[in-house]
């Protein structure tokens, strides 16, 4: 019996990482009036990736499951709507 492949860890592209680091720096400057260095930006981003990304990913899976359930309910009612009255 073949083993199922597990999903790999979520990976951000280089451009996504850079954009998020810029967002972190802007947040600190806007909200706290502090400049944050590149190392601190990277550390915060890695913390978010490690701790928050799985939570967001799992939530997205739950949302997709709920959406799919609604689609299947609609498909089932549409299916029964195809039946014709018998004489």
Write the layout of secondary structure elements.
Blueprint: H1 14-32, H2 38-51, H3 53-81
Helix pairs in contact: 1-2
Strand coverage percent: under 5%
Terminus-to-terminus distance: 51 Å
Over the alpha carbons, how many angstroms does the gyration radius reach? 23 Å
Instruction: Report the strand count.
Output: 0
Low-confidence stretches: none
Q: Biggest β-sheet, characterized? A: none
Strand-pairing-aware structural class:
mainly alpha
Oligomer, anyone? single chain
Order of helices and strands: HHH
Level of helix content? over 70%
Name the overall outline: elongated
> Please, what is the average pLDDT?
88
What's the total helix number? 3
Detailed description of the structure:
The protein is elongated. It starts with 13 loop residues before the first helix and ends in a 6-residue tail after the last helix. With 87 residues, it is mainly alpha-helical. Helix content is 71%, strand content 0%. The protein is built from 3 helices and no strands. It has helices spanning 14-32, 38-51, 53-81.
């Amino acid at each position: 019996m073949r083993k199922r492949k597990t999903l790999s860890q979520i990976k951000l592209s280089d451009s996504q990482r850079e954009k998020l680091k810029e967002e972190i720096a802007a947040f600190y400057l806007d909200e706290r009036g502090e400049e944050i260095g590149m190392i601190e930006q990277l550390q915060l981003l890695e913390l978010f990736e490690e701790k928050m990304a799985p939570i967001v990913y799992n939530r997205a899976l739950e949302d997709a499951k709920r959406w799919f359930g609604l689609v299947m309910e609609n498909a089932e009612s549409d299916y029964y709507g195809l039946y014709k009255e018998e004489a």
